[in-house]
């Protein structure tokens, strides 16, 4: 069997690796899809498989009798000999009517489940990478009708379109960070659970001081690249329970959970050092201001957000490259770092 070297290819990994969250209602819909393709195909199993790093896992499994696959199980994909490895490695449909009759497939791992027949298609991410596969498997030789081939392919096309909609609703298209609506929903959920865990929570807002000047001087394409570069550099500094999003045109916002103010200030300093030390950003005289505000018990998101927003504004009024810390809500005081 052909051995694929894409496990070691960083470009492949980056293109195909995603943390795209599939909503529960979408998974419920996908359950109907695999039930349909397995029933119409007269097959033992219908599956939607998801690729994550070097593993493949079923995330939707048909409820057909005798289906040996279960949601939550995981298999190492690369050089495994699995049918879906070929689909993902070659990014194309695979049909194996009877694995026992070919040298290529007679020893593949699915034979252990007596799955000797396979039809599968790759499912694509919005960036053209591979999300996983949609497939049907049977414990007997099955040629499948042209209508079944067409059905599985059209269901794949539907999944591709749904993944794009999920992506568009979740991420900012320019930076590939969360959009603000996603950040808002995740932060509200964190506030709810915080009543139990009682963690310190901080908002950190980062603003590019001079993006308008850069756009006017160098053009918006350069401004867009500065936003993308900034997003990537910030993300590289993050560890722990942190949510990062692109907010508005020239601002980024982070929710930092379970860290002290000292740690938050250290993270801010790490980000400052990273962006200030980047040759390309320095070449375009990019500077940033920062605002920090801690969450207060029983505070609503909107009030907390207004604190960090006003803190950032005051920092910007103090000059380029400033850090503002809102540290006492009652006194409404601001300290500059």
Approximately how much helix is present in the residues? 40-55%
Q: What spatial form do the alpha-carbon principal axes imply?
A: elongated
- Report Rg: 25 Å
Spatial arrangement of strands, main beta sheet: 3-2-1-6-5-4
How far apart are the first and last residues' alpha carbons, in Å? 60 Å
Secondary structure tally: strands:
12
Order of SSEs: HHEEEHEEEHHEHHEEHHEHEE
Structural class: alpha+beta
Low-confidence stretches: 7-14, 329-337
Residues in β-strands, percent: 15-25%
- Helix run count: 10
The largest sheet is: 6 strands, antiparallel
Q: Indicate the mean pLDDT.
A: 89
Could you explain the architecture of this structure?
Helix 2 (24-41) packs antiparallel against helix 4 and helix 6 (211-218) packs across helix 7. 41% of the residues lie in helices and 22% in strands. It has helices at 10-16, 24-41, 83-90, 146-170, 180-197, 211-218, 220-236, 261-276, 279-283, 301-317; strands at residues 45-52, 55-61, 75-76, 94-96, 117-124, 130-138, 201-208, 242-247, 251-257, 288-294, 323-328, 333-336. The strands form two sheets. The protein has a six-stranded antiparallel beta sheet, sandwiched between helices. By secondary structure, it is α+β, with helices and mostly antiparallel strands. The chain has ten helices and twelve strands. The chain is elongated and about 75 Å long.
Quick structural overview:
41% of the residues lie in helices and 22% in strands.
């Amino acid at each position: 069997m052909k051995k694929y070297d894409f496990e070691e290819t960083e470009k492949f990994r980056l293109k195909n690796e995603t943390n795209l969250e599939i909503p529960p209602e979408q998974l419920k819909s996908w359950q109907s899809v695999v039930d349909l393709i397995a029933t119409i195909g007269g097959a033992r199993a219908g599956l939607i498989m998801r690729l994550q790093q070097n593993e493949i896992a079923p995330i939707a499994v048909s409820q057909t009798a005798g289906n040996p696959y279960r949601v939550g199980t995981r298999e190492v994909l690369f050089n495994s000999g699995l049918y879906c490895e070929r689909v993902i490695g070659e990014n194309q449909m695979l049909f194996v009517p009877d694995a026992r009759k070919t040298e290529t497939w007679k020893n593949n791992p699915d034979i252990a489940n007596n799955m000797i027949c396979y039809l599968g298609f790759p499912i694509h991410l919005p960036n053209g990478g591979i999300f996983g596969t949609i497939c049907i498997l049977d414990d007997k030789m099955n040629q499948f009708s042209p209508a079944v081939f067409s059905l599985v392919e059209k269901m794949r096309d539907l999944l591709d379109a749904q993944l794009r909609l999920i992506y568009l609703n979740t991420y900012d298209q320019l930076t590939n960070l969360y959009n603000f609506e996603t950040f808002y929903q995740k932060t509200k959920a964190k506030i709810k659970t915080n009543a139990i865990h009682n963690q310190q929570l901080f908002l950190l807002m980062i603003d590019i001081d001079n993006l308008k000047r850069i756009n006017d001087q160098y053009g918006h394409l350069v401004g867009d690249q500065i936003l993308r570069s900034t997003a990537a550099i910030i993300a590289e500094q993050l560890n722990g329970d942190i949510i990062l999003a692109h907010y508005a045109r020239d601002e980024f916002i982070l929710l930092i959970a379970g860290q002290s103010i000292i740690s938050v200030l250290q993270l801010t300093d790490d980000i400052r050092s990273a962006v200030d030390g980047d040759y390309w950003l320095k070449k375009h005289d990019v500077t940033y201001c920062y605002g920090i505000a801690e969450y207060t018990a029983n505070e609503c998101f909107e009030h907390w957000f207004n604190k960090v927003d006003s803190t950032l504004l005051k920092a910007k009024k103090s000059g380029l490259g400033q850090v503002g810390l809102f540290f006492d809500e009652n006194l409404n005081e601001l300290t500059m770092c």
